[in-house]
Amino acid sequence: MPLPRKRSLRGFTLVELIMVMVVLAGVMAIAAPSLNKFFRNSALNDEARRIVGLIEMARHEAISTGYPMQVWFDLENQWFGMRELSGMGNQPDNPTGGKVQRGKYVYQLNTHLEIELDTSTMVSQAFPSIVYFPDGQLETSSLSGFYLKNKKQENQRLQIVRSPSWLRYEIRKNDEMLLIQNETL
Predict the structure, then answer these.
(1) In angstroms, rounded to a whole number, what is the distance separating the alpha carbons of residues 26 and 154?
(2) CA spacing 20 to 30 A to 147: which of 45, 55, 95, 158?
(3) Burial annotation 122-145 (CB, 10 A radius, 16+ → b, else e)
(4) Cβ 116 vs Cβ 147: under 8 Å
(5) pLDDT per residue over 132-178, tens digit each?
(6) CA 52 to CA 154: how far, in whole Å?
């Protein structure tokens, strides 16, 4: 009776491992530029959603607290935030008081992005803003829209614009509304 053969336990040769590494490096060289573009666009979309979310939160806060709420934009330092307006006429024009306030409703824009006002937007304030009244309506002098763009690539930009109903703000790319939520009020 013949003895059973022992299976040979062979691993990969060094040449086979090097060939696999070369193929993986080639695939990564082809895929890396596409992934880089994807992540840049992702940051732009995420920041636009964060701004629109803050604007929507200001509307809800104004309705629930009974005080006007302001979403302000510091274009020079690329900060934005939300604050309560307890007396509409006596608030300083600088919502941060000349310095960056730490807190729950103050955010710094992603360093690769910037906010740019639409050339048709007339701003009489040092800090352009969006103000919601306690009834959920917008103040007429609120920003009608602005652009959020990538500093390094001019063609990567989104527009955040007031909806036709004057209740919400929408994200648009090339005049098409981007769906950011399925909620309707």
Answers:
(1) 30
(2) 95
(3) eeeeebbbbbbbeeeebeeebbbe
(4) yes
(5) 999 999 998 889 899 998 888 777 889 999 988 888 999 998 766 55
(6) 21
Residues lower than pLDDT 50 in the chain: 88-92, 98, 100, 102-103, 180-185
CA 33 – CA 153 distance, rounded (Å): 14
Contact criterion met (CB below 8 Å) for 58 and 132: yes
Residue type, 34: S
Look at residues 107, 108, 79, 105 and name the one whose alpha carbon lies nearest to residue 94: 79
Q: Where are the beta strands (DSSP E) in the chain?
A: 69-74, 79-84, 106-108, 113-117, 129-132, 145-150, 157-162, 169-173, 176-178
The identity of residue 4, as a single letter, is P
The token duo for 182 is: 């399925």
Question: Two tokens at 32?
Answer: 């890396």
